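Hi there,

I know you've been waiting on this one. I reran it after we fixed the sequence typo, so this is the corrected version. Both the input and the resulting structure follow.
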Amino acid sequence: MKDTPLGTRIVEVHNGSSLFTGNAGGGESNLRRYIIENDLLEAIIAMPEKDFYNTGISTYVWVVTNRKEERRRGYVQLIDASNISTPLHKNLGEKNCETTKEDRRRILQLLMDFKETPESKIFRNEEFGYWQVPVLRPKRDKEGNIVMKKGKVVMAKNRNEMELVPLLYPGGISAYYEKEVKPYDSEVEFGEPTLGYEILFAKYFYTPTHLRSLEQVMDDVKEIGADIYKLQLEIESVVTRGINSDVKFKSTNIPWLPEIPEHWQIKPIRSLLREVTEKSETGDEELLSLSQYTGISYKKDAKNTGMFEAESTIGYKKVYPGQFVMNIMLAWNGSYAVSDLEGIISPAYCVFDFVSDCDKLYYHYLLRLGIYSGAFKTASRGIIDSRLRLYPNRFYPFPIICPPIEEQHAIVSYITERVAKIDSLIEKLNKEIECIKEYKQRLISDVVTGQIKVS
């Protein structure tokens, strides 16, 4: 580090193992010891989980400097920014959120303020130190008798048995032994201690949670579900009727779409989409998956569907960002989407280019509405649902609404905001589901331990 008036400030990104891996005296612990005892550690910031692509583990930012402010000398600041994030419109692998400019501003403000808050804790450097003390017990022979030598009991060390004594424990190791160990296990003695350092982040930010009643959880689930449904209806209305509530409407003679704004047009889908086929010659491209729920994703990130895995992907269809992909066997349930990924997909699917000037995301939202997937079912052919197929020649004639391009952009912006809210509500809903699972486990535990009598 530079020994200049400004010194050096290093910001590093680590996973959680760098906080605690290794025993006292080991390389990892000694590195933490060097950084902390030399007063180089300014702060550690816990970032949101799933903030990085395909990395669901916790991530921490270390701020290391040899020029601490006077007020920071001898102290380390821990910041829990794990809940400071913005949900993504669409997950990218494990990544389901991002740290926006506003999020970064909030985190930076916590760092600059250097104050105790629910998200910011300040500790003396010594808080993270501890003595790793081996526990010695009387050695015994094969018959179980205590081994004596020169009239003294021979003490032996079990390498798996040790005590961790906080560096700041009042009175030090001897006081810890007298108060915490000897009254409960008087035959033991302490061996030679080794100094170590670790930072157990959860220890300082843990807050116990109390289970709500099942009725309260179910009420919250119903409320969240109602909010999601309301937003979905709002999105459907905006896509088919626009943002301006004062606009005049005209009839369409389409049973499942009776009216639209009078300045909008209706055209066949063939005016918007045209099937293209470009096959992979090597099969080396990233394999894609298509779902009615999540749209296009990488196959490796998709949940196991139990579908047959082909031995070779040579001849699979290439897909590029901005193309429309449809599973003709499942179009009736909404299995189609505009791709934002590049890769290859099953040759049984259809890939389309957009051939007119439009906002592709608008048509992604429009065609994924239930009114369209339901209408597609009427044109699909097959003896049962699982055999229904919507071939391009039956897909192309379908009527599609065409707002002016400026309105398409405005509608997409409006929907993007609403979708972010839905994603946030879904996250809350998943947490409520976890509460129900926890309630179930508590109920089982209470019955097993006799706290609830079963007649």
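Quick highlight: The longest strand covers residues 155-166.

Best,
R. S.
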